[in-house]
Amino acid sequence: MNLFAMINIFIAVLCLSLTAVIFKYAKNSTHRIWGFFNLILTTWGVSSFLIGIASNEAQARFYWELAFVAIGFMPALFYHFVLSFCNRSQRTLLILSYLYAVFFSIVLSLGLATHSFSMLMSNSIYFINANLVFSLMMGSWCGLVVLGFVEFFNYLKGTTGLPRIQSQFMFWSMLIGFSGGVSTALPAYGLKFYPVFQISVVFYVIFNSYAIFKHGLIPLDIIIKRSIFYSSLVTIVTILYFVGVLIFQRIFIGIIGNNNMSGTVVSLVVIAIIFIPIKNRIQAIVDKIILKNSPIEIVVQNENLRDEVIKTEKFKSIADLASMLAHEIKNPLSNLAMLTEELNERKNEPGYIEEYQRLVIKEIERITSLLRELLVFANPTQLTITDINPNKIIEQVINLIKSKCDHTKIEIIRSFNTNSNVPGDSNLLKQAILNLVFNAIDAMSHGGVLTISTETRESPILYNNYENGTRKTQYVMSISDTGCGIDSKDLPFVFDPFFARKTNGTGLGLPITQSIIEKHGGKIEVASTVNVGTNFKIIL
Question: Which positions ≥6 away from 498 have C-beta within 8 Å?
Fold first, then answer.
């Protein structure tokens, strides 16, 4: 295989990988157009690779004609992408560019530009000789590409901040890629140099991959970013490692002059002694660079992070509660202010002072009760198992959310079919229920019905043994809403950390709720239908 073929298959693999990432995480039509552009680059890379390994002129002619189909659509897709990226509208020119692409591809794929070939670099590559048709088509091809860059450059001058950074990466990577790619046409005009400058397309992929991961050219979750980058780097290191091992094995066998089984065994022993520690060291360096710590340190940090996440989510719940409490406290404070204003005018009325005292004490007790609820919930404590009545916890939660539900026209329905006690931590269970209730309220922004029900049932699992075993009684709490529902594609991931569809969501509420329930030896289930509602079941 010659260098031309190796470079182009490398380009094809990289462009295909970038295409897969773009289509996987595409958020809009601009991303999808860009994906199709990279798919065309992949086709061009594969075609050029096949040209590089063609064994006769007939094969080379067919592969050149296949490459011309891809080349013909490059400027049209590039121009379309630029217009979409820059939010420009040039409908007529865009239609003409695609008509040109179809015409270009048909004319060149019919062999009108592949009448004759020259052999390049020790007769290893069949390269076309340019004729009038080829020159005319390539001239117009370059003109359309230049038009796209002019449009892009004008847009770039007017951008600032992150859009400017993203645009700069895209502009320069495209310019480098096109400059190197178009150089492969120069040998067709008799310039006898090896066509390797298309390697610049590799830099196009690298720059855009960096822009995706570093500057959000396509939005990716931080965990996905780290995992893809880490996996790619480990793969590259592993490939280089095995290449090094193979080279060393060839050199070692050449030195000892023994190409039989014993020479191979000796080389493998030497490789095991020398290269495996090197490989482990390289892996440790990669871990340190990407993950910042050793695997043991990462485990410790994960445990600490989990505790911090629980605290963070609890603080968010406290903030939500504080907002509701502010509304609740506002009413008794308003009553106290009104009573104080009337005091001077009505203090001589018979019985008014006694009534004033009674009302003031009532309103103060109401505020005190609300604040006590917040302080008890906010106090960080370890898991403390006591015998609790979940129905009472539900009533406390309903009292906290009632004003917000009234404001958003949400009806609350209780359906307590059991009054059984269960072992649990009341504060943590309250947090779990609040998280589910807050989600339900958010899902019913235009009103609806929130239903909270409880029941007991026998577990389907037989304990001890199948002949004389007993069935455990399960406590089941159901929290249902009539909100927007969860898409079936998202349902398997709702308990995954950082998975969120709400713009203001952290993606941690449901994972923490699941963690709390699992700490109690229970489980949580979810069922949902879009535009019908969602049902969460806590089973203890």
Answer: 221, 222, 223, 506, 507, 508
Task: List the domains of the chain with CATH numbers.
Answer: 3-220 (1.20.1070.10), 234-292 (no CATH), 300-380 (1.10.287), 382-539 (3.30.565.10)
Distance CA 146, CA 84 (A): 17
Tokens of 65: 């004609």
Question: In 10 A of CB 283, how many CB atoms?
Answer: 15
103: Cβ contacts below 8 Å, ≥ 6 apart: 72
DSSP one-letter code for 483 = S
* Structure tokens belonging to residue 325: 């409490």
Q: Is 316 exposed, middle or buried (0-12, 13-18, 19+ CB in 10 A)?
A: middle
Q: Cβ distance 245 to 275 under 8 Å?
A: yes
DSSP string, 315-337: HHHHHHHHHHHHHHHHHHHHHHH
pTM: 0.45
Phi, psi of 503 (to 5 degrees): -65, -30
How far is the C-alpha of 46 from the C-alpha of 393, rounded, in Å?
65
Please choose, from the candidates 139, 145, 211, the residue with its C-alpha nearest in 3D space to the C-alpha of residue 173: 211
Q: How many CB atoms lie within 10 A of CB 448?
A: 20
Q: What is the full per-residue pLDDT of the chain (540 aa) written as tens digits?
A: 677 788 888 888 888 888 888 888 777 888 888 889 889 889 988 888 888 888 888 888 888 888 888 888 888 999 998 888 888 888 888 899 899 888 887 887 777 766 677 766 555 678 778 888 888 888 888 999 999 999 888 888 887 776 777 788 888 888 888 888 888 888 888 777 667 777 778 777 777 766 665 555 555 444 444 545 555 555 555 555 555 555 555 555 555 555 555 555 555 565 556 656 666 666 566 555 545 555 556 556 656 666 666 666 666 656 665 665 666 677 777 777 777 777 777 777 777 788 878 888 877 877 776 666 555 445 545 678 888 999 999 998 998 888 888 888 999 999 898 888 888 888 889 988 988 998 899 889 888 999 999 998 877 654 444 344 455 788 999 999 999 898 888 888 888 765 767 655 556 678 778 888 888 888 999 999 988 999 999 998
- Angle in degrees, CA 393, 397, 402, rounded to 5: 145
Cα–Cα dist 82/103, whole Å: 21
Strands 410-416 vs 448-462: parallel, antiparallel or unpaired:
parallel
Pairing of strands 533-539, 471-481: antiparallel
Q: In the numeric block, which tokens belong to residue 213?
A: 């991961």
Count helices and strands in the chain by DSSP H and E runs: 14, 9
